[in-house]
Amino acid sequence: MDLNILWFWIIAFMFIGYFVLDGFDFGVGMSLPFLGKDDTDRRVLINTIGPVWDLNETWVIVAGASLFAAFPEWYATMFSGFYLPLLLILLALIVRGVSFEYRHQRPESAWKNWFDGMIIVGSAVPALLWGVAFANVVRGVPLDADFNYIGTVFDLLNPYALLGGLTTLLLFFTHGVIFVALKTEGDIRVRARRLAITVGLVTIVVAAVFLTWTTLAFGTLASGLLAAVAALTLVGAFVANLRGAERWAFGLMAVTIGLAVVTLFASLFPFVMPASNDPANSLTIENASSSAYTLTVMSWTALIGMPVILGYQAFTYWVFRKRIGRAHIEAAVH
After folding, report:
1. Which residues of 100-117 are buried (b: 16+ CB within 10 A; e: fewer)?
2. pTM exceeds 0.85 for this model
3. Domain that holds residue 44
């Protein structure tokens, strides 16, 4: 396998890691108005992701840096053409991170409610806009002969891209609510399972429409098969949640999100940024990649560094594996 093809799939793997891990963070943040009856409930929800949310977020930094190094033309075109959506994602992530740290600094309800609102918005905006961005990459955007984006922001808000954004929003929401059921105990766990049933049904319908549209309009036989398996695992996660098997439900949701990302990358291959106006202006794995020497150095770096990162993250999740509930929060107060 050529190194540029290898790095195309390594970047896909990094986005899988980001969407699976930070995806449930987004879902937990969006669940605050639905599962947080009072401040104690909201503290329980935030504490389910408290030890890991910032670690999960580093995946997008690594993915962006790898994209810049391995495919500089792709990086330049996407980050210049999608400047406003990506800026909004960055601002939302900053607002969310600040809110996690500041909401407990003062006892007033108004203070906490303000930062809770920013957590909700800071979770929903990236969940929506990442789907919009990736759907536009798969669909193709207008590019000139120098691979510069020549459309407008409104061109990115097309029906297919908006459906992609709604799909990621619902997938992450469902993923996060199932994570809450997995990580909590008592009444909040029961309510999380019920909410996952309701939102899960909507997610299945919306995701099925999006994956079908992707396969018929932009996909191949391989991406179509991947989309079908993703649909089956999503239904499996719904059934597992119905039966109270939170571990299976969460695992199958992770597989679903991973397969959805692979489906999008498989639909792209061998392009990285198709040109909707003229196929000759499209960016491919070949014309967008760095030199062989750069990709070789990156490959050795990834071979050494990636096991360390995965091992450290696995250890962190193992340490903070226990369930939490209202009793833990109330005990901490006293």
Report:
1. beebeeeeeeeebeebbe
2. yes
3. 3-212+271-333
Mark out the alpha helices in 140-186 (DSSP H runs): 159-183
Query: Which tokens hold the place of 12?
Result: 């896909």
In angstroms, rounded to a whole number, what is the distance separating the alpha carbons of residues 320 and 312?
13
Say yes or no to pLDDT of 334 above 50.
no
206, part of any domain: yes
Helix (H/G/I), strand (E/B), else coil: 145: coil
The beta strands (E) that lie in the chain are given as 271-273, 283-284
Residue 21 maps to a domain: yes
The encoded tokens of residue 254 equal 């992770």
Task: Categorize the per-residue pLDDT at 104 as very low, low, confident or very high, splitting at 50, 70 and 90.
Answer: confident
Q: Is 224 within a domain?
A: no
Of 107, 127, 91, the closest CA to residue 18 belongs to: 127
Domain annotation covers residue 195: yes
Number of domains in the chain: 1
Q: Are 244 and 281 in contact (CB under 8 A)?
A: no
- Separation of alpha carbons 289 and 75, rounded Å: 10
C-alpha closest to that of 84 among 27, 42, 125: 125
Bridge partners of 275, per DSSP, are 141
